[in-house]
Amino acid sequence: MKAFDYSNVKNHRTYDVLMPIARVASAAAARPKCVGAENIPKSGGFILACNHITAFDPIHIASHFPLPIHFIGKEELFASAFVGWFLTKLNAFPVTRGSFDKSSVEYAIKLVKEGYVLGIFPEGTRSKDFKPSRAKSGVALIAKAARADVLPASIYTSDNAKFGSKLTIRFGKPIKFEELGFSDDGHSSKELREASRLIMERIVELWEKGHE
């Protein structure tokens, strides 16, 4: 794959062109229901954080979201030249897991500061049992640096996300930056962990509502 260009944030027109197809694909793969759309801000400049159950999650979420989303994805997904090119055209960008990927983190911060929506799965990987797990600190690190609000969301399945499963996508009220409890002096590891925990707790609260 050609190296991703982190120097300039782009909102690709391909994303808008393919979104109607994404809605059809989402409906074909599952029976998604969207709850809480009224909680989605009218403009960008925030982080969308959701639990992660299948590789199709970004499609399900994006097809029910009124604003373009720039999803951060594991570097391995971009290994194929064509797949990497395609994902880039869908506004996605890669991150190297297991280490501090400065280029990716700085790009994510720039995205939010320039008024775009950053899509992130705080757990860092898909859940094997389809239940939310512990969040990593990356989401809090980006939120702190960008001074960003976080919109919590959840994807719930009652039958392990099989083909044709009923899915409930639920958006909660935004977590204001001030609620995350950051101080102004440096990057406290404890603050980042606690902020990440708070974000994941809000996601779990949404998830626990199930299909109701």
Helix and strand layout, with pairings?
Blueprint: H1 13-29, E1 30-35, E2 46-50, H2 57-62, E3 69-74, H3 81-89, E4 93-95, H4 102-113, E5 117-120, H5 138-146, E6 150-157, E7 165-171, H6 189-207
Parallel strand pairs: 1-7, 2-5, 2-6, 3-4, 3-5
Antiparallel strand pairs: 6-7
CATH homology-level superfamily = Glycerol-3-phosphate (1)-acyltransferase
Structural class: alpha/beta
Question: Any low-confidence stretches, pLDDT <50, length ≥5?
Answer: none
Number of domains: 1
Helix content range of the residues, please?
25-40%
Q: Number of DSSP strands?
A: 7
N to C succession of SSEs: HEEHEHEHEHEEH
What average pLDDT do the residues reach? Answer: 92
- As an assembly, this protein is single chain
Query: What is the correct CATH architecture?
Result: 3-Layer(aba) Sandwich
Structural notes for this entry:
The protein has about 210 residues and is α/β, with parallel strands linked by helices. The chain has one domain (about 15-205): Glycerol-3-phosphate (1)-acyltransferase (3-Layer(aba) Sandwich), CATH 3.40.1130.10. It contains 6 helices and 7 strands, in the order αββαβαβαβαββα. It has a 7-stranded mixed β-sheet. A hairpin with a 7-residue loop joins strand 6 and strand 7 (about 165-170). The longest helix has 19 residues, at about 190-205. It starts with 12 loop residues before the first helix and ends in a 5-residue tail after the last helix.
